Amino acid sequence: MIPREILKKIRQVELRTNRLVSETLAGQYHSVFKGQGMNFDEVREYQPGDEVRSIDWNVTARMNHPFVKKFVEERELTLLLVVDASGSGRFGSVAQSKRELAAEIASVLAFSAIRNNDKVGLILFTDQVEKFIPPRKGRRHVLRVIREVLFHDPARPGTDLNHALEFLLRVTAHRAITVVISDFIGSAGDQDTTSGKLKSRTLLLESLAQSSQKMLRHANRKHDVVAVQISDPRELELPALGRLVLKDAETGEVVEVDTGDPRRRAAFAERQTRALADTARLFRSAGIDSIQLRTDQPYAAALGRFFEMREKRRGRS
């Protein structure tokens, strides 16, 4: 029996995302993510404007006037959500945490998929694969996916994207739309900060650039990989609050940081902005489209721009 407060939270996510899916994104999803081939549907009489190449010459010869073959898109696809459940996802300095935003993005994409009769699956990962839900259809299945993203209690706090991608390649034989939703944050080497050294929060794909890039390329050759990067404003800019005691959600490291110095705040903001740009370049070099979202900003416009970009590019190809 699922507790009432959990059901209420899941229902709230569904209601918030349902209108966006109904009015906009389900149609954009259909336009952007196409099937892998065409299936024969029927033979019908030729009409002005039909492609001459589609004429069925055997039927035409028998009937003494032209007939064409009609094909329909092989529509059914699989959407695999690869969602980061590590400790840093619990952080949130505004109305929602990064994990809550991840659940909303997963909800929008999953409901868009099932409205187009596609299957939806889930891989939850930390520095290991925590849970795998095989792809299925239906609203109840999507609600289970949302529940797991929101309320799964991870066994480990760390992050290892490569393990998740290796698992993806093992369990998914056919090409799938693969959306990786993460803050892409890991732990890296020491950097100078306020008093002494702080093992700074740096982007996972910066610290593991070569291996991650290789694995991302490999995954993107087999699947259609999209990266959704979620950040919180307090990870990009430090508030001027004097001395703060901070605890790393993944390593447990506790440090004291003096946020009263404007030069140190500016250096931190510059470093984080550079890290975001480096990660975006890494995605591009791996041939992967990416979306950058923040917990303090509406996500609908960013998703809309992403779908428009993909549709324009598809029209040029």
Q: What do these coordinates show?
A:
The chain folds into two domains: 33 residues, no CATH class; 235 residues, von Willebrand factor, type A domain (Rossmann fold). Helix 1 crosses helix 3, helix 1 packs parallel to helix 10 and helix 3 runs antiparallel to helix 4. It has ten helices and twelve strands. The longest helix has 29 residues. The chain is α/β, with parallel strands linked by helices and 317 residues long. The strands form four sheets. Strands 5-4-3-6-9-12 form a six-stranded mixed beta sheet, with helices on both faces. The protein is elongated and about 90 Å long. Strand 3, helix 3 and strand 4 form a beta-alpha-beta unit.
Separation of termini?
50 Å
CATH topology grouping of the largest domain = Rossmann fold
Strand order of the largest sheet: 5-4-3-6-9-12
Task: Provide the gyration radius in Å.
Answer: 23 Å
Which features characterize this protein?
317 residues, alpha/beta, Rossmann fold, 2 domains, six-stranded mixed beta sheet, 10 helices, 12 strands
